């Protein structure tokens, strides 16, 4: 969706373009198990935009990769960037670089150099937890492999051990940091939520 009125500082009204959605599940894939694309990033070396979409194949969690030159026509790569058996639907995937030498400095995805690893974070629909792996992203093969010492799946590393789910990050270039934000569902009853008219923060 795009803002209807760019002069509105609160961007209160949104419209869907006619060519929306720009990425659709393949024929035979369950549309309700295909969602939450990442922020797209640009690879200067080959001129392609890339993004990930969360999904599942039977009981295997999957992060599909899509590529585009014009940001309108997207093509799925031959293989998913990563998957893990018996993890179920992967919601809200996130993928970003981290520095191995400067732990206080965030990195924009356009950064390509030595001493970086990548984080692949997914929200496991079955567990309602945030799991992540740290590993190596091969930009030529569009493949990601978690480090051998990084658990991959149910026993993986978690962003948070509280009531926190469906997170995403963005890079704040003003403060040179990556910001994580997510959803916290309260313990209120459904009746209380209905009376309030909202649920979760």
TrEMBL record:
Keyword tags: Glycosidase, Hydrolase
InterPro entries for the chain: Fructan_Metab_Enzymes, Glyco_hydro_32, Glyco_hydro_32_N, Glyco_hydro_beta-prop_sf
GO biological process, one term: carbohydrate metabolic process
CDD domains: GH32_Fruct1-like
A GO molecular-function annotation: hydrolase activity, hydrolyzing O-glycosyl compounds
Gene3D superfamilies for the chain: Glycosyl hydrolase domain, family 43 (2.115.10.20)
Domain annotation Glycosyl hydrolase family 32 N-terminal: ranges: 12-200
Pfam families reported for this sequence: Glyco_hydro_32N
UniProt xrefs under SMART domains: Glyco_32
Statement: the UniProt record of this protein carries the keyword Hydrolase: yes
Family per similarity comment: Belongs to the glycosyl hydrolase 32 family.
PANTHER family attached to this UniProt entry: BETA-FRUCTOFURANOSIDASE, INSOLUBLE ISOENZYME CWINV1-RELATED
Protein name per the record: AT3G52600-like protein
